[in-house]
Amino acid sequence: MVGTLHVTVLNAVNLEGKDLGGSSDPYCKIILNGTSHKTDYKSKNLFPIWNESFVFKKVDFNVAVLEVEIYDHDKITRDDLLGKNQVSLAPLEGFRPMLVNLPLQAGKGMVNLVLNAEK
């Protein structure tokens, strides 16, 4: 089944501090089928609240996997990866919104998303 995916990046909790002083300036990047979106970064925050929504069109929910990456924004050096994970979109075929509490791999913490599919 092919449709449109609405993703709301709610927040993240207990992120790793990568900057001097033990903080981070996190943002969330979501990737699907080569298309990516990212939230604004939140300065010096290990528990950021984004509440930002994005849309992906022409998504095949049977096979699609949403990639989620959290980075620490740096002004001078390359942004540091704080953690990442993936979520299968197959359960969305019922067209019910799904709250996803996604633990971050290759880091610590968790990101919370709402996924919603429509035809």
TrEMBL record:
Keyword Calcium among UniProt keywords: yes
Presence of keyword Acetylation: no
Domain of life: Eukaryota
Name by which UniProt lists this protein: Synaptotagmin-3
Residues in C2 domain copies: 1-102
InterPro entries named among the record's database cross-references: C2_dom, C2_domain_sf
Alphabetical list of Pfam families matching this protein: C2
The organism's taxonomic lineage, starting at the top: Eukaryota, Discoba, Heterolobosea, Tetramitia, Eutetramitia
Keywords for the protein's UniProt record, in alphabetical order: Calcium, Metal-binding
GO molecular function: metal ion binding
